[in-house]
Amino acid sequence: MQPRRPPPPAPGPPRPAAPLLALPLLLLAVQGAAAPTGPEAAEWRPDTGPPHGLLRQAARAALHFLNFRAGSPSALRVLAAVQEGRARINAKKECTVDLVFTTEHYNSEEGEERLGKCSARVFFRNQKPRPAVNVTCARLMEKTKRQQEDYRLYKQMKQLRNPLDGVSIPDSHGHIDPSLRPVWELAFLGSSYVMWEKTTRFLHYYMAQLSGVKQWETNDGAIDFDYTVLLHEFSTQEIIPCRIHLVWSPGKPLTVKYHCQELLAPEDASGTEEGSAVAPTELSNF
Amino acid sequence: MIEDVQSLLDEEQEQMLAFQARASSTDNFNYATYHSLEEIYDFIDLLVAENPKLVSKLQIGSSYEGRPLYVLKFSTGGKNRPAIWIDTGIHSREWVTQASGVWFAKKIVQDYGRDPAITAVLDSLDIFLEIVTNPDGFAYTHSTNRLWRKTRSHTSGSLCVGADPNRNWDAGFGLAGASSSPCSETYHGKSANSEVEVKSIVDFVKDHGNIKAFISIHSYSQLLLYPYGYKKAAVADQKELDEVAKSAVAALTSLYGTKFQYGSIYTTIYQASGSSIDWAYNQGIKYSFSFELRDTGRNGFLLPASQIIPTAEETWLALQTILEYTLNHPY
């Protein structure tokens, strides 16, 4: 296990008069596995451009990855709009997408306009999952505020014991009790890892519903959390149950273990998918 | 004697309170919440009872499990006037669509005679609205699995239940864009129109013979789609449908700023074979559109009830655009 290095120092807080756009970028630079170089056989012609769906696909992959690596349940992002992008595909049908997109704060009630800009390079290996992501975003939430919100969420979670048994979040009517909101946000953080890992050139996921939540004690005060999430895969319209186990403390890396069921036939009892990760303490290639 | 009267009054009060949970008119029906099948069917009966000259209820068939398939007919008279078909809830988990269908039904009766646009439409055209297009699936989303999509038909030789009613239409049936596995969410069914819920609409539309627009409503993704889904090739009326979609989306967005994309099913969402609007278009129903309502994934199928009315309101503006266009462009 490598010794911890302190994270790169963030630039100082902006001067009060500075407009939002003047906030320095590169506050969060995260890299995935390096994309291979090599001759590209074809490029989309400028007049046609890459299929719009491909750019959104890349944006979603980048965001799942970003959310997981940022490890902050109170500062989760969702896609607002793709602004521009281009893609290259090589002879092996591997696809590199460069794009710029805006994001919104996931946790906020709708209507809150906080459009943080991101640029990313996403590499899809034909139909294989786990796209390589290199993403850079302007900070949506000021660092100390984010830390405070994370800590507040942590305290709220600590107060919830296990009357979470049998509760579905949200309920059938799409409602999440305010006291359960932190549970949802933490689950979304863990699910981001799973969704990133499962995303391919053609498959993308959303978190539909959460059930079977169990919270366990840990010695060091971390949140230790076991739950089942129902992921909705869009192109096949399938609902995929995943059992996720995560451990989280504010400011510390998230650990995630998961086990998804790939349901195709009830007779087919095999077909499960497992994975686990610990978010590295350094922002470096892995 | 007075005590007896009092206790009678108390009892009556108690009974009234017990029934208050059930709407006594479409004016005190709660449009901002999701309802059960029974509540929606009660709503339908109330609406008809309150507006007997404008609204009637037709049964176009029965579901696999024997539930009636009801269609509301909005008509100011005439004999087999050109008509518009709208269906919601063909995929049962898309709850905002059935809820919007209920709202549209009320909106139509409220606005007829008051709003010049809808009045003009109904003075010449009829509107058919099937609110719960897949009642077996819908009942199942309430009783057992909120995320059930398909019908509840049984396929021999499989333990899996249901076919995707929007892959079961006779347009590119069984081609790429549907699954042949009964356990899949996009299982096309054993043959085109094998699902009675689909067959009932097919028979109705063919028997009617004068449907001029066909609109299927789904969620989620915020899209307005036109044919084809089963193949990439553009329909002959692509340019016109694209223009109509463009103006319908502009109308929708004007209300709350909700952003929609539009285009053919194939190029905008994914390849899908056996879909309702491909079939309708190939029947000669030029103005065939499919909506995917709110949202874009934040809540997905479990859209909070607080968004039902805003969703219905904005969607109605798009529908009105299509209705008016259909009225003004007879063919």
Automatic annotation (TrEMBL), chain B:
Pfam families: Peptidase_M14 (PF00246). It comes from the Eukaryota. GO terms for molecular function: metallocarboxypeptidase activity; zinc ion binding. GO terms for cellular component: extracellular space. GO terms for biological process: proteolysis. Keywords: Carboxypeptidase, Hydrolase, Metal-binding, Metalloprotease, Protease, Zinc, Zymogen. The active site is at E292. InterPro entries: CARBOXYPEPT_ZN_1, CARBOXYPEPT_ZN_2, CPA_M14_CPD, Peptidase_M14. Residues 33-326 form the Peptidase M14 domain. The keyword Plastid does not apply. Its cofactor is Zn(2+). Belongs to the peptidase M14 family. PANTHER family: CARBOXYPEPTIDASE A1 (PTHR11705:SF94), PROTEASE FAMILY M14 CARBOXYPEPTIDASE A,B (PTHR11705). This is Carboxypeptidase A1. It comes from Equus asinus.
